[in-house]
Every structure is written in C-alpha cells, then in structure tokens.
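Before relying on records like the one below, remember that each one covers exactly one chain. Contacts with other chains, cofactors or solvent are not represented anywhere in the record.
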Amino acid sequence: MHDERQKPEAINTLRRQLTMGAAVSTLLPWAAPAMAQQASLEGVDLAPTVTAYGQKLVLNGSAVRKRGYFKADVTALYLPEKMSSPDAIYKLDGVRRIQLNILRRFTSSTITRIFLADFKEAATEEEFKRLIGPIGQIGAAYANVKEVVKGDVVNLDWVPGRGWLATHNGKSLNEVDGKPLVIKDELAYQIYMRMYIGQGAPADLRNGLLGLTKG
C-alpha cells in the first residue's frame, strides 16, 4: 500500500519536471547563433558570420561556380541581413561581400578575360560603354593577382563611402604602382553582382547565393 500511495506523487513530480524542461527549452533559441556551425561545401568551410570593415555580415548563401566542366570556386555571399531578392540586395545600403574560395588554378590573364566576358554579358550595351573607366580600374585590380590556386580566398566588397575593395588572401588589390586604386562607381559593383545573382547567372549559382537552395 505504501508503494501505491507514492505513485501519484511520483507521477506529478515527473510532470512538473517535464513541464519545466519544456519551458526552459523555449528560452534556448537565443543561444543558437553562437552555436551555429560552419557551412561546408566542396571541403570549404564557410563561416556563418564575418566582420568586414566594422560591420557584421551573415552568410546569405553559397554555391559552386563552374567553368565548363570544371569547378572554379565556392562562391559565398555575405550581407548585413539575409535577403532572397536580387533587387533588394542591389539597393542595400551596407557592406556586401562576394567571397571566392578557389578550387583550381587560374592565371592572371585568364581571370581578367573571364571577368570582362562575364561583366559585358551582365551589363547592357549602354552600361558597358558608360563604365569603361571603372571596368579598367577593376581590370587593374585583377592584374595584381598573378595567379590563384586551390585554397586561395578572394573577397570582393562594396563598402559605402569607400567603394569597391578587393583582397586576395588578405592582401589588398586596390593599388597600382604604389598608388591607391579607388573604385567608387556602385553601378559597376551592382553589375558585378548580376554575374552571380542576376537572371543571366546559372540557376544553381543564383539560387544558392540567394539562399533558395542549400549550397
């Protein structure tokens, strides 16, 4: 009889513990960002957040960019907040980062040729003519990279007030003959982004960067 009387009390205690556990669990999501794991694609680890020029950015999406049959790089898009609309991203007033995690070797001449072909395809004829100056500046920045190899990281950023800033493995590319290379035409950067998230970009690349599919 003693054991039978204890059963209701034990059951009530268990219920209270379960209820408390459920209540506590509702408070835990605040810790999720701190525990967020890196995304991994083609063996490349992508940080869920980065700090660029004093601003915290989140990984919007990622995808493998191909050149013909070859995988060229793991492209990642970092923004101040997640967005799935290209138009909203183009108009965003904040730091934007396109990060290229290189998967194979490319020479400087190949990099420049690919950039010019892709840029011309993404721009209208009028835009391309208007942007000859900035295009030349971007080409000069690319020329600072003699080659890229697997494992290299290239960051291509738009920073309000400072313009287009690029680095290769942390080294600035915004310099020519010891002089600063200032590229402040935002339209040029927007067209550059079209190469990745515009309607003319490969669907798997665009959808991955917009976070519509897993990279």
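Residues 2-25 form the longest helix (24 residues).
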